[in-house]
């Protein structure tokens, strides 16, 4: 009987184990296996993902990568920011109480009028008022004991034996944000102890910053003298003791920055986290012995005044932002662009932000599990900083009626926007065939050749095929959202398009062939030699099997005119070398704006920025003296009608010159669950999470609805288990009876 009991127990355990496995496979275990928030669906938490790795730099002096911005822009407050809803993008105060109008000075330091020509300005002085009463998040760097002494400012390495994260320090404190914190942060950009990608650029504009960097390097060298080369615990450089005239606090709440000459675009840099405040207490706290070895630094544990603070950093696993209890508050906007009210984006007008208490980022190394969990409702948005998810879902819905039905049933919100980014095919101005030309006659012929190619190259078809219609065809270098951009039909390129009753339409091939003949290539052959015209396209990433259909399509565009297109395949390093030397003939190139100003795109065509001659970003080496003159005038102008007029003149020039084949402006798209509110896709505004909201009750309801266990397979398994057990039990009973009947009595 003992054997029978044992066998029964074993079979029961087998069935139980199979049941648990099947429950998981059939959906009953999904909330355990898939959900990043098991049992917490009703909390006011936004769940999203990150891929590949944890952010490398959360120190605002170093951070410049897209995957870092969901953290840095929620934690830090630069002086300025952008209006969340308005387009074109509008600069607004963030930590500042208002936007500062610069005071212009001449070489002798005398004030100049606001409308003075830019070439007369020696310095622009920005006096930025910092909002009083703003306080830093709770942090151990500010903690003090009863006597007023800093609790954690005299630590030794042994004091950190049980410290692995900032929450391991039980005591915290705070203090008011001051102008000196911005002064300290800007000085820190020049420190040799900090990797700052913006230092070289800013040192060209901020008075004295370069010389200050040289001074700090000398201090660093003297402190390192006699220390082993790989020493991590270095003596602290107290940046309060040394400064420079370009940045100062003229009172506790006024930051003064001196900029060389007139540079109106400087205001946009003040909206980036490079200009976020750094309290000296935090810099000192993290410089203590043993901190670097424990990864206790601003790169992992930032200190800010924004709506959120980092409360968990599990590298390559999970990061958590929690509401900053010291946040001064900011109300949700009451204005937007057309369509925002209808989309419900103004429903929270005037309400205090942030709406969400907690934001959790979970790593997802593979795209398929991420997509699956999003469709199960376990993620509210796939990745907070990525703009391609909404576009990919829209494309998938267009390709599959089944997916379109699923997305509709799930109530996914998939809004799109055209980004401040462009892609174009550049003509190398140094090339004798497609470039500028050596003589006036040759210049005119080359111009007509570029125009003919621009007409024949059907970007509308390209966007439909290769961008799945998720892009806007360009008529010039400026994307939507910027001052100076004019949408078609008014902004249509007259060199490539004719105006019809239904709007602009691409000029006919006959027109392109006429221009080609006037350029000296009737039918695609040199009129003098009879040789076919061959245009070489340099492919920046080589010619892979996946890219071959695109190149075949491109070749057909040239073939419309009888022109042969040859693809010259190179790896990216060699391609860059060709661009630096100016030997590529035509090429595909793109640009993503650092700030929403026309200057950030038009400088790509400014002669002195030519890549071959000056190492600049003018990859096509375009040169037009009139365009350059207007650019130098435009870059000094503040936003307004005069600047828009100058930009319009510049666009007319580059359209007539066919400086580029103006390709397209890609779209980005948000992917939001139906319970996510106030989602508006943008790659320019990075502090967007503070404006979003969650209906957690609806989320919990939908997750339960979408992930109900499928019981039929489980019942079948249980029945099969019972059918397997009954014969076994019967057999064992017969065996036991037989043994008992034949047993010999003592």
- Shape, please? globular
Low-confidence stretches: 1-32
Number of helices: 22
Q: Note the beta-strand portion.
A: 15-25%
Mean pLDDT: 91
Quaternary form:
single chain
**Helix/strand structural class:** alpha+beta
Q: Count of DSSP E strands?
A: 24
Spatial separation of the terminal alpha carbons: 21 Å
- Portion in helices: 25-40%
Radius of gyration: 32 Å
Report the sheet with the most strands, covering strand number, pairing sense and barrel closure: 7 strands, mixed
How would you explain this protein's 3D organization?
The structure is a single chain. The protein has 746 residues and is α+β, with helices and mostly antiparallel strands. The protein contains 22 helices and 24 strands. Strands 14, 15, 16, 19, 20, 21 and 22 form a seven-stranded mixed beta sheet that branches. The radius of gyration is 32 Å and the shape is globular. The two termini are 21 Å apart.
Topology of helices and strands:
Blueprint: H1 2-26, H2 30-33, E1 45-50, H3 69-75, E2 80-82, E3 91-93, E4 103-105, E5 111-112, E6 123-129, H4 179-189, H5 199-202, H6 209-224, E7 247-251, E8 254-260, H7 266-269, H8 280-286, E9 308-314, E10 318-323, E11 330-331, E12 352-353, E13 358-363, H9 367-376, H10 389-399, H11 401-410, E14 416-418, E15 421-427, H12 440-456, H13 459-466, E16 471-473, E17 497-500, E18 503-506, H14 509-518, E19 534-539, H15 548-559, E20 564-569, H16 572-581, E21 586-592, H17 599-602, H18 611-614, H19 625-634, H20 641-657, E22 660-669, E23 676-677, E24 693-694, H21 696-706, H22 711-741
Helix pairs in contact: 1-22, 10-11, 12-14, 19-20
């Amino acid at each position: 009987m003992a054997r029978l009991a044992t066998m029964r127990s074993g079979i029961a355990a087998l069935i139980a184990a199979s049941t648990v496995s099947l429950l998981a496979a059939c959906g009953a275990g999904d909330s355990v296996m898939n959900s990043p928030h098991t049992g917490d669906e009703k909390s006011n938490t936004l769940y999203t993902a990150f891929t590949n790795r944890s952010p490398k730099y959360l120190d605002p002096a170093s951070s410049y990568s897209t995957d870092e911005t969901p953290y840095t822009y929620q934690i830090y407050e630069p002086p300025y920011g952008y209006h969340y809803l308005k387009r074109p993008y509008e600069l607004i105060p963030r930590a500042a109480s208002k936007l500062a109008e610069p005071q212009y000075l001449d070489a002798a330091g005398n004030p100049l009028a606001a409308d003075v020509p830019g070439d007369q300005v020696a310095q622009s002085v920005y006096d930025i008022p910092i909002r009083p009463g703003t306080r830093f998040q709770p942090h151990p760097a500010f903690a003090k004991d009863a006597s007023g002494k800093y609790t954690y400012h005299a630590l030794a390495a042994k004091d950190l034996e049980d410290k692995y994260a900032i929450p391991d320090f039980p005591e915290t404190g705070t203090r008011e944000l001051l102008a000196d914190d911005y002064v300290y942060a800007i000085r820190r950009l020049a420190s040799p102890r900090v990797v700052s990608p913006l230092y070289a650029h800013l040192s060209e504009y901020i008075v004295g910053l370069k010389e200050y960097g040289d001074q700090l390097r000398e201090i660093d060298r003297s402190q390192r003298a006699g220390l082993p080369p790989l020493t991590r615990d270095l003596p602290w450089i107290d940046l309060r003791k040394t400064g420079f005239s370009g940045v100062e606090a003229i009172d506790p709440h006024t930051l003064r920055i001196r900029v060389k000459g007139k540079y109106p675009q400087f205001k946009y840099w003040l909206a980036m986290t490079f200009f976020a405040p750094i309290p000296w207490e935090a810099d000192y706290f993290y410089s203590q012995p043993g901190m670097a070895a424990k990864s206790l630094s601003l790169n992992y544990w930032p200190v800010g005044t924004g709506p959120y603070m980092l409360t968990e950093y599990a590298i390559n696993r999970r990061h958590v932002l929690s509401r900053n209890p010291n946040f001064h508050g900011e109300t949700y906007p009451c204005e937007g662009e057309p369509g925002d009210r209808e989309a419900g984006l103004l429903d929270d007008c005037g309400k205090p932000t942030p709406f969400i208490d907690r934001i959790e980022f979970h790593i997802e190394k593979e795209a398929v599990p991420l997509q699956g969990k999003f469709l199960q409702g376990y993620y509210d948005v796939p990745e907070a900083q990525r703009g391609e998810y909404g576009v990919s879902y829209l494309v998938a819905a267009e390709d599959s009626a089944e997916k379109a039905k699923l997305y509709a049933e799930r109530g996914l919100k998939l809004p799109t926007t055209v980004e401040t980014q462009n892609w174009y095919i550049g003509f190398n101005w140094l090339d004798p065939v497609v470039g500028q030309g050596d003589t006036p006659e040759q210049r005119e012929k080359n111009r007509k050749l570029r125009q003919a190619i621009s007409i024949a190259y059907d970007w509308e078809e390209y966007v439909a095929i290769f961008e799945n219609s998720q892009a806007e065809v360009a008529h010039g270098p400026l994307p939507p959202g910027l001052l100076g951009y004019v949408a078609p039909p008014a902004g249509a390129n007259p060199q490539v398009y004719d105006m019809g009753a239904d709007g602009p339409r691409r000029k006919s091939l006959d027109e392109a062939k006429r221009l080609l003949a006037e350029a000296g290539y009737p039918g695609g052959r040199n009129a003098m030699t009879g040789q076919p015209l061959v245009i070489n396209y340099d492919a920046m990433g080589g010619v892979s099997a996946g890219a071959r259909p695109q190149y075949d399509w491109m070749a057909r565009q040239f073939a419309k005119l009888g022109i042969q297109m040859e693809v010259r395949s190179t790896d990216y390093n060699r391609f860059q070398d060709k661009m630096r030397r100016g030997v590529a003939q035509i090429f595909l190139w793109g640009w993503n704006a650092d700030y929403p100003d026309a200057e950030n795109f038009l400088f790509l065509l400014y002669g002195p920025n030519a890549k071959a001659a000056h190492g600049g970003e003018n990859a096509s080496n375009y040169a037009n003296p009139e365009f350059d003159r207007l650019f130098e005038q435009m870059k000094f102008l503040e936003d307004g009608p005069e600047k828009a007029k100058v930009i319009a003149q510049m666009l007319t020039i580059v359209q007539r010159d066919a400086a580029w084949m103006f390709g397209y402006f890609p779209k980005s798209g948000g992917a939001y669950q139906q319970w996510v509110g106030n989602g508006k896709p943008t790659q320019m505004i990075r502090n967007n999470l503070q404006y979003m909201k969650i209906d957690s009750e609806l989320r919990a309801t939908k997750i339960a609805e979408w992930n109900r266990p499928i019981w039929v397979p489980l019942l079948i398994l249980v029945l099969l288990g019972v059918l397997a057990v009954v014969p076994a039990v019967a057999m064992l009973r017969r065996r036991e009876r037989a043994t008992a009947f034949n047993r010999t009595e003592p």
